[in-house]
Amino acid sequence: MIIPPTGGPKGKMSKFASFVMGLSYGFKGKPGMVKTYPMKEFKGVVPEGAVVYYANKKLDVIQKEPLIYNTHIIVVQELKDQVLVEIYKDEE
Question: Exposure string (b/e) for 65-92, b if CB count within 10 Å is 16 or more?
């Protein structure tokens, strides 16, 4: 059993963990595929129609605009019959 990390008071799950868990369990009811890559492989080219989220896990922040320091970049692409989620993560 996977237990998501808790980052807040009273054992609440962090925003970052909640977001990633939500993507992995299904986006708009479609089956999904999640792939992870090192951050250095993100070239800044995003497929048309994809949504990019920038995250800093340490600060528990996720937004659509780049942060000063991103620990993760999450690209969500809705395909015809599934959702492709690419997570680029810092190697630290």
Answer: eeeeebbbbbbbbeeeeebbbbbbbbee
pLDDT in the model for residue 91: 77
Could you tell me where the beta strands, DSSP code E, fall in 1-92?
32-38, 51-56, 61-63, 72-78, 83-89
Residue 92, pLDDT score: 65
Tokens of 12: 């609440």
CA distance 40 to 61: 21
Instruction: Give the strand order in the sheet containing 72-78.
Output: 32-38, 83-89, 72-78, 51-56, 61-63
Report the pLDDT value the prediction gives residue 65, as an integer from 0 to 100: 93
